[in-house]
Input
Amino acid sequence: MNNPKLGFVNKNRRELGMLGLLIVLVIITSWGTRESGVQAVFESKFLSSDNLKNISREIGIYGIFSIGVGIVIITAGIDLSVGSLMALLGVVFLYFVTPTETRPDSFLARIIPEIPWIAAIFLTLLIGTAVGLFQGLLVGKLKLQAFIVTLCGLLSYRGLARFSADDTSINISDSSQNLEFLRFLGEGSLADVLTNGNGSGLLHSIPMSFIYLICFAIFFGIILHKSVFGRYIFASGRNELATKYSGINTNIVIAFAYVIAGFCTAFAAIPFCIYTGSVQPATHGAFFELYAIAAAVLGGCSLRGGEGSILGILIGTAILIVLRNMVNLFGYPTPLSDAITGGVIFVGVLLDQHGASSIKKIFKKSH
Amino acid sequence: MKQKVTDLLIKTSILTCIIFLISCGKNTNNGDDNSASSNKVKLAFVTNATADFWSYGKAGAEKAASEHDDIEIEFKMGDGTAAKQREICDALLVRGFKGIAISPPNPTGQQQMINDWANKASIITVDSDAPKSDRLFYLGTNNVEAGRQAGELLKEALPNGGKVMAFVGVGDQANAVERYQGLKEAVAGTNIEILDLRTDEANIGKARRNAEDTLTKYPDLAGMVGLWAYNAPACLKAVKDKGVAGKVKIIAFDEEVETLKAIDTGEIHGTVVQQPYEFGYQAIKALRSIIIDGKTPNDLEIPETKQKFIATKMIRKGEGADYLKKCQEWKKGG
Output
């Protein structure tokens, strides 16, 4: 019982299971897209530097806001407003960097001034964090249900984004500032940023968004798993009342989880709107909240709260993105993509909860 | 503890089996990339969103592919977002596609990504253009010309002139502006008076209300023009409701089933249709000529403007059923 290796397996059972799934996915996709012969698996289209760059860029963006949503889920809450908030912040960010005369005629377009892009990044992060704080206070302090609060957010931020953009698309190319460096920071690679777009080699295959994700993962990993505040988050999620009676202000802990989610969403919103080059407020970031929830749940977060890890969320995000990439690389019809993703998540979670034990029972009966 | 490890092993192996089955499906459905088919040049058509319109385009693209054994094509439908289109095109390029025809949902915002793709493959735009990007050329409809054709139909329907109202979803969208402009140009100098353009923000319920209100406000209305596909059927419902079907002449755009049926019964005078089948057919043909035969857009008789327009067609009484049949065949993949 005291075998430390088995202790590790037991402690990280879910993460390891999903890591297994991710590895299987990677092997199968590499095998299915290899050029020729068995040895060519390592030269497959999946493992080509272009493709690895594409998927790690997406994992970076999706991973950042999934971490925020995952932390909210650990406190037994939920955040449904992520996609809509990304659309709203996308519109706001692009308003900050484009001249007033290029914007559609709306209230928000008139009051938002054009500012240098560095200031625009900080202000966008600030607005996202403030929105998170607002939702956090409603859930943590006023004890409104998280589902309802963030559902209202989902509807109203989307509506506000569409209204403020007059339902037209806002384009980054309308900006009169030199945004080349911002583009490198958003969708470029480490080599682009270091050499101003002339880089090549390994560094060229590492997108900036993936580096941001690694930083986020390390930072929030330490907060969640190594700090006292992290323990409060888990405790509030597992049993809020007991945590409160042990002298911890759970209101603040829960509210803070939403602040983190707001910040993470705002941080992901900027590279994502650079990645798409424009924001169409009606569809920008649609269903992202559900991808984030799926990534968190796949990675071992329990919707009942009190369970989950940053590593798990990262693995969950990677599974989602690799699955989509697999569907695209295999040339399946696009509509099947979501069906396959949904199916694999379902089977994964089902097996995680019941699969193995039921199968073992069947074997035992047959003996 | 040992049980936990066994648990993990069982789960992983079951998932492996499932995913293996999925990937087997790929090999039988689409042919393995390693087989002889990899000698063929791969071309793709990526749409902006899903619509019946594009299933006709798909039929055209497949027809073009069937005429050559040195190309294979994939037809991908987007979901209306630039993000999805980027995901699809990035994967196509990784898979070694040499030419892609795309219909960008947001041409201005996607300029940069179109330029990135154009560095790796031959890119043409179809149906919606990004003129400032590095795309080779554009294939699409001339909406001003389409508006003029609607004007011609209107002149046939109302030889003595009269008051006419135009309807559209969003008034400042490029195709709405251009169609309305063409319509006004065509009827200039006649007794036909275009009253105004009513918009409904693509809300079909509101489109019908607009038509009803117009009939109430102008009892002497002689004609209605629906500039977007659903507008004419909405006008038709309002006209029938009021009992003036056939008296108030309706001119439509596109090939809605209701429109085509009503043309043969005489309740709608005629419609102007785009030719998405030709979009698909000509796009794939052009990409093949450029990539395999080494032709330039000039050789393909693409005008200096780098925009090639595919003429719209007028459908009048007696032609509705035939056109509907053709559309249904295209939809079934014929």
